[in-house]
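Support reply, case 0932

Customer input (verbatim):
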Amino acid sequence: MNTPIRVILITDGDKVARRAMEYAANRLHLRCISASAGNPTPLTGEELVALIKQAAYDPVLVMVDDKGNPGQGAGEQALAYICQSPELQVLGAIAVASNTRRAHGAPVDCSVTRDGRIVDAPVDKNGLPDIYRPTLRGDTVDVLRDLNIPVVVGIGDPGKMEGADCLENGCEVTTRAIMEVLARTVGQVPDFTAVSSQSPLRR
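Our regenerated output:
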């Protein structure tokens, strides 16, 4: 039997999030399924699994997005399908906060704030600690409560957070969140490419 492919799920898929995930994957020498990006998710869970299986190596970053659907939209359906695939091993999820008021949210194991701190609380869309809420609220987050995902790390809006996670700054928050999932599951973090203000952004 083949070894399951290791996957990290991200509950956001807009254009800015896609660029942040691609950049972080490049820094950490991971794979990113760029075709999974979309608002909402353009592919079914079955189609995403097929793409993941084509990755040259793992872990693989996969984005899912509901575009604010109050029910279980395309992103959450794809996320659940991926988690149930026997060919994949979901290491963890990056739960992305949003301003939605229609979601119940999901608990997180920790969050990465916009200044790079690891906190035992949810964060809001801007990456600020949200200590008065027991759950992180996001468009594509509710389904995480019903799935057995080893590690859930919360962050604000990838690639944004008032500039704290922009490409020019190396998408530090997104990168740290992925590193935290790896540290808590596989027990090691790959060497990552340092960001230099003198180097062009790699896409």
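We compared this against your earlier run and they match. Two observations from our side: Strands lie at 5-10, 31-32, 60-63, 88-96, 110-112, 118-119, 151-155. The two ends are 35 Å apart (CA to CA). Please reopen the case if you see a mismatch on your end.
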